[in-house]
Amino acid sequence: MTDASHPAERRVREDGSPERLAIDTIRTLAMDAVQKANSGHPGTPMALAPVAHTLWTRFLRYDPEVPDWPNRDRFVLSCGHASMLLYAVLHLASVQEIDAEGRKTGLPAVSLDDIKQFRQLGSKTPGHPEYRMTTGVETTTGPLGQGCGNSVGMAIAARWLGATFNRDGFTLFDNDVYAVCSDGDLMEGVASEAASLAGHLALSNLCWIYDSNHITIEGDTALAFDEDVAKRFQAYGWNTVTIEDAEDTEGFAAAIETFRRTGDRPTLIVVKSVIGIGFPTRAGTQKAHSDAPGEDEIRGAKKRNGWPEDAQFLVPEEAKRSFSAAVAGRGKPLREEWEQMFARYREAYPDLASTLDDLRHGKVPGGWESELPTFEPDAKGIASRDAGGKVLNAIAARAPWLVGGAADLSPSTKTDVKDAPSLEAVTPGGRNMHFGIREHAMGAVANGMALTYLRPYTGTFMVFSDYMRPPIRLAAIMELPVIFVFTHDSIGVGEDGPTHQPIEQLAALRAIPGLDVIRPGDANETAVAWKVALTHTHEPTALVFSRQAIPTLDRGKYAAASGLEKGGYVLADCAGEPEIILIGTGSELPLVVAAHEKLTSEGARSRVVSLPSWYLFEKQDQAYRDSVLPRGVRARLAVEQGGALGWDRYVGPDGATVTMSTFGASAPIAKLQEKFGFTLDAVCKAARDLVEKVK
């Protein structure tokens, strides 16, 4: 309950300092923006205004003139519904907008007009903060818990950068990562997974600020959440500090000092706040979480804060001047000192400086493609997961910024870099990450690493992509070149049975806009798939590999695997126009080739199309796509050990598929292939039947 007797309320009214003026400006901007949009969440920005003010003006290492300074502290708003807190802070700090190349545009990152356009089409102030859209937004947040996971990845990457690039007298990287999280964030499992990993890695450069206000959309958190969060985090290996009142700026400052002195573990600061502080009724406070509170509530809140009741989007000059001067006054000298140090570093360590330049600009070190292996024809073949491991290790020798691992599955996913150290608390510069059985956090952590210059990759079984779908989706939204390695891609998993045999996962991943899903059909396509993944700069890649051996095709007889770079290509053909096109991906591609050879021997005019990446194929012009899949050829048969969903795009109204329409079963792979129709005889029969049907 907020009332005049609450000590926070008395301080709000009685303190007329520039600090209080800026805090109240944050609060009123949040109220006005949400009310004008008739949409949003003003309560948390109002409650956390003192916390944000204290952190930014007294501690955060940040230069508003150069907001992409590499050694800046990161500020992550995991509770993205409180976006107006971040927008108000970026405005008051006078952060300058930069373009994709880091050049100043001459515009503020967030102007007052931008705030007036909160949640409107085309504005720089969307409902939840979006990376690349608004300078100063370090990551896209909104799905609760994701920002927490991102912050762990950022802290891991910062330590890796320090271990890799710092030298005596040259501390290039020693920045901290701050994440503001809510009750909702800490209810989500991904935050728990990420916190557990952070404690294991002793990430002393990581501080989560937990806004404990006991309110969610449904009401008081007591409805579903009554654990002792501090004790939980202590069990994770975190240091914890509790601030009883969010208005206690000195207490919060002391908590930050405690974090900065703690060198062996991450820190959780529990800040107890009153959501929608200043609203005159409990109803207004409750509405402050999930809806525009209404004009009467806002006028009452402004009156109680000593603010002009009729003023809208009021930003007193003193509030902005004092706030921006405090942030820049500390951040600009530190940034200039860093740049001078880096100039000396470039002279002393030119190779390292050049590598760091490449990292900052997302460039791949030169010459790495020469390390890509080629595989000789082999009827027995090799599992694409094994081929993928060989390719990864060949590339890793030339690409030190390629850092990643698996969710406790590297022996199966083949995602470990041989003879490289693990990334652990005592070896923060290691190459091989052990995410533990934490697929959801693994994806979110990888996104945070990608947001901090590294090129991360992850590994798990294909069926468990369901556990990490939210961060995969966010990687696509943010255009992050994360590489998600998925193995055990089909019923080829065999005896593990339907719980481990992916059916619908391929279609689900292909449905994500901006995600390149590549399912290579042999070892040489696997090498090209890795090449494509590493050359992507603005899209994530899902590499989908088999558990079972796949024959390595004779590229002297069939088309070169480089055709994968266009997503799909003619692998084998006939003289003249084909009467049937066989389309395959992954482990089914050699089966399709075998069917093509048998049909050809019977006199059929058959073409084989390898279509490992729908994403890349759709990027080709219509003429190329028509050359691969001529419109006049109506008999098209797609063969894939996954669901049929989506294949109608390529087989057309007269085509057919040999796909899965049920879940799998537990049995040896040969028995499964026979049961579900993935045999040479079954595919050939389906092809013949289709040709007759089309005739």
Question: What fraction of the residues are assigned to beta strands by DSSP?
Answer: 5-15%
Shape: elongated
CATH superfamily of the largest domain: Thiamin diphosphate (ThDP)-binding fold, Pyr/PP domains
- Could you give the order of strands across the largest sheet? 12-11-13-14-16-15
**Number of structurally distinct domains:** 3
Contiguous low-pLDDT stretches (5 residues minimum) are 1-13
* Main beta-sheet annotation: 6 strands, parallel
Number of strands: 22
Radius of gyration: 28 Å
Alpha-beta content class: alpha/beta
CATH class of the largest domain: Alpha Beta
Question: What's the multimeric state?
Answer: single chain
Which architecture of the largest domain does the CATH hierarchy give at level 2?
3-Layer(aba) Sandwich
Textual characterization of the structure:
The radius of gyration is 28 Å and the shape is elongated. It folds into 3 domains: 7-335, Rossmann fold, CATH 3.40.50; 368-551, Rossmann fold (3-Layer(aba) Sandwich), CATH 3.40.50; 568-694, 3-Layer(aba) Sandwich (Rossmann fold), CATH 3.40.50. It has 695 residues and is α/β, with parallel strands linked by helices. It has a 6-stranded parallel β-sheet, sandwiched between helices. A 5-stranded parallel β-sheet has the order 1-4-5-9-8, sandwiched between helices. Strands 18-20-19-21-22 form a 5-stranded mixed β-sheet. It is built from 26 helices and 22 strands.
